[in-house]
Amino acid sequence: METEKPLTPAAERILTVAEELFYANGIHAIGVDTIAAEAGVTKKTLYDRFGSKAELVALYLRRRDERWRDWVHGYADPRAAPQRRILRVFDALADWMSMANRRGCAFVNAHAELPAADHPAQQVIAASKEWLLDYLRQLAAEAGARNPARLAEALLILIEGATVVASLDVLPTAVAAAKRVAKSLVDEATAAR
After folding, report:
1. What is the pLDDT of residues 75-93, one digit of tens each?
2. Residues 167, 26: Cα–Cα separation, whole Å
3. Residue 164 is inside which H or E element, if any?
4. Which domains, ranges and CATH numbers included, belong to the chain?
């Protein structure tokens, strides 16, 4: 992940407002006029600081990705059994979704709104999902899974599916249900032959 330059106080206000509005309402529904007005700056200031709405969207997602990674790492207990560390990712997701993240995955939502492959946000979206897959693969290897890549793929699919289903209120306990399935997969993948 690239290191970003420190933002001015005005730029931080713009980014904070943009993050809240983009996630709550969608990226296309929110224009730069609204963001500038809510942040108490001019459109010129917004463009001077970010260059374009597309770059602002990419930075919003980078910041969200940094928070998500920190959140997940905060649930990793190095003293816990490796199998338990895998399941802690589901605990992290459950708590993340209970903390004003009821619209599901910001990256999936953004991907649906921004289909152009050359949009600057697309690299951020892909990097976020690739990071989680790599992290799950690492945890699976540490747990002694026979095929860490295959287990990580299944776990990522469970996480993504649970996020969508929970955000739709189809199954409010989707993350807990996914965790139960994940436990079975982890147990099977790490069982001695």
Report:
1. 988 889 989 999 999 999 9
2. 14
3. helix 148-167
4. 54-190 (1.10.357.10)
